[in-house]
Structure formats: C-alpha cells, structure tokens
Amino acid sequence: MFCRYCGSDKFIVLKVNRERRYDVRRRSYLPDDDIDTRLIVCDVCGRRYITETMIIAEIGYDEQRNQQLTLSLTDKRLKDE
C-alpha cells in the first residue's frame, strides 16, 4: 500500500474497529463479521486513510503429501450464501 499523495509505504495505525466496515455513503461503521477497519496515517506527509482488512485464506499442512495447502475462505463464504 502506498500513500496516494506522497508515495510512501510507511503508515501508523491509529485505530482498529473490529468487525466493522466503513460505509462511505452513510459515513458510519456497519457491523461485518469478516472485516476489520483501520484508521491509518502516512508517516511522511500525515494524510489519513481508512483501510479494510479481511482474512482471505487459511494455510494448512497435508502430512500425507508433505505439502502446504491454502484454503480459500472467500470461496467458502460464497458457497454458504
């Protein structure tokens, strides 16, 4: 992630809203079990941004095959709906 103003990739997290998504139209936070929202500030120019973070995959290990497995959680959510 880069700052849109100065191009820096250094940010400081000011606040984390667990299980909340920011709705730009309503200008408020809405409940969402899959997303955490963070208020971040660029360490160079001071611009503030809102970011959303979500777990998209789980990494496991198959002992029979001796290999790492990646299980997509986004596909699972689509199947449940």
What can you tell me about this protein's structure?
With 81 residues, the chain is mainly β. The chain has one domain (11-80). 10% of the residues lie in helices and 52% in strands. The protein contains one helix and seven strands. It has one helix at residues 73-80; strands spanning 11-17, 20-23, 28-31, 35-42, 48-54, 57-62, 67-72. The strands form three sheets. A three-stranded antiparallel beta sheet has the order 1-4-5, with no helix packed on it. β2 (20-23) and β3 (28-31) form a beta hairpin. The longest helix is centred in the C-terminal third of the chain and has 8 residues, at 73-80. The protein is flat, with a radius of gyration of 17 Å. The relative contact order is 0.20. The model is unreliable at 76-81 (pLDDT under 50).
